[in-house]
Structure formats: structure tokens, C-alpha cells
């Protein structure tokens, strides 16, 4: 198993960057485009992003989408194409895009999503800015923006609102997630569904982004979400911003395997004491019994988790039990259980 990252993007995947030398606007908001297959008309998509007025567009390209990059980079000089040389997770792609950008905000979308409401990039960025009074009352928070990530309302191809807000719950001593629709403005979500949302770039980098060592999409998103809330950040919804899937709604594999175990060590096992967190040795016997592996391998993983928690111990604001206990249960009525 690879090492838990200590700093943001300490190891980058191999890639080549093409284009993206010209700035289209000066809103502070850029778009990050993740590609899910090549069957969607790319020229039309980039025209829509151009019309919205993003500063730059970062397009993460797998081997399937490269045939027209030269032509598209000439037509859309504000688009930077990132040609990946290996298969990487969505979280790693978002990390890479964040490291390529310099603006304050970035909007992660997929090529099978289109904007239904939200206005221009300038209007989106404006809605996320704190007022002068709110900035003054923010205390130690120096960011001019409201939160780490703002997630949109998402619809299916029939324009029916989807349950895309994520709530953590404990079922039979295991952490599961419930999905529910954004019935009103500003509801919290454990993590951005499908990675989609507008991120505060500075906060995202300070948080460490997505953990590249967790390869399963579900547990990578869970790790990012729990870490965000445990470390005092916020992920909430917006009714003003609406997107719709053109095709099938993606699903996640939440099977508890080695990726879950890493998520557990980083988020569920640490104990919060006053102003710091630690991973106590008493957690090891239970972890070993559930790991399904040998004693030596289990101890190596556990010891690495302890080192990571110790390095970041003063960044905790609460523990996982507090996050699940205090999640507003009233907002999860009539939800769909995600197994």
C-alpha cells in the first residue's frame, strides 16, 4: 500500500499539458472538466464553457479523448488539456487540476453534465463571496469565500432532482451514507457527489486535497468529506446552481476493503482530546481482527496511520462520532439508502 500523503500533491501522476495560455476572463473562477468517455460533443461543450465565461478550463484527458486535442487547443486557447499517461482516480485528477490553476475558485464538472441554471462564472463567484461584515466576523478564517465546497442541485435527464446530498450514519457499528435531495438552500453534504462542486482552491490545497493512496472512488470521497468536516470546513448545497446529467447517473462501489481500512485509520479511529487528535494503541487489536491480513502488515498500516494523525493532530475540531451524531437527522427524512 502506498504512503498516506502528508502535503498536497507531493507525488504527481505523469502527464503532458497542451494549450491554455490565454485567459478568457477575470472572475477568479475556472472550470475543471473530467471526461467520462468520448461520446459527448466536445466542441459544443467547450463553446458552452466559453459562453459561461470561466477564466480558464482544465480538461483532464484519458487515452480515449486525445484524437482532437490539437484542433481544439487552437480553437479554444483558454483550455489547458492535461494528457494523462496512466489511469488515475477522479480525486487525483482534481488535485492535478488544482495545482495547474492559480485562481481562487474552480468548478469541477463532468462531460456528461450540462448547466441548467446558475448564470455566468462571474455571477457564480459573486454569490460565494462573504460580505464585508461576514469577513470581519470570520475570525481566523482569511478566505473571502463562504465555504470549502459548494455543491449544485443535480437533475437527471428528465430534469428530476436527484438525491445527491450525502449524510453519514452509523448502522450496526459501521459508517454508511444516506443520499437525500436538496430540499432547501444551504443544506450540508458530507462530500460533493461525483466530485462535482465549486471549490475554494486555497482551502482545498490547505486540506491536502484528495488522498491519492485511496484508489476506490467512494472511500476517496468519504475520506475527503470526513477530513473536511473533522478539520472545521464546510460543504453545502446551492439552489441557485443547477446541473443535469445527459446520461445515466454514476454509482459508487462502497465495498469495505483495503481502501476502507485506510479511510478508517484516518477518520473514524482517531480520538479528539480538547484541541488535538490521536490514534490510540487500544484501537489496534480491533483493527487487526477486522483487517483480514497478517499481524505485521496490519501493524505497518496502523503505525503509518498513527504517524499521519500525529502530524496533523492540531487540525482536528471534533471526532467522527460528533460528526455522525450531530448531523441534522431532520434533513435525511425520506432518503434513499446507499449500500
What would you note in describing this structure?
The chain is an alpha/beta fold. It folds into two domains: 15-245, Spore Coat Polysaccharide Biosynthesis Protein SpsA, Chain A (Alpha-Beta Complex); 258-338, no CATH class. It has eleven helices and 14 strands. It has a nine-stranded mixed beta sheet, sandwiched between helices. A three-stranded antiparallel beta sheet has the order 8-9-14. A hairpin with a 2-residue loop joins strand 12 (271-273) and strand 13 (276-278). Helix 7 (217-230) packs parallel to helix 8 and helix 9 packs across helix 10. The longest helix is centred in the C-terminal third of the chain and has 17 residues, at 295-311. The chain is globular.
First-last Cα distance: 25 Å
Strand order of the largest sheet: 1-4-3-2-5-10-7-11-6
Strand content: 15-25%
Q: What structural class do you assign from the helix and strand content?
A: alpha/beta
Identify the notable features of this structure and list them briefly:
single chain, 3-stranded antiparallel sheet, 23% strand, globular, 11 helices, Spore Coat Polysaccharide Biosynthesis Protein SpsA, Chain A, disordered C terminus, 32% helix
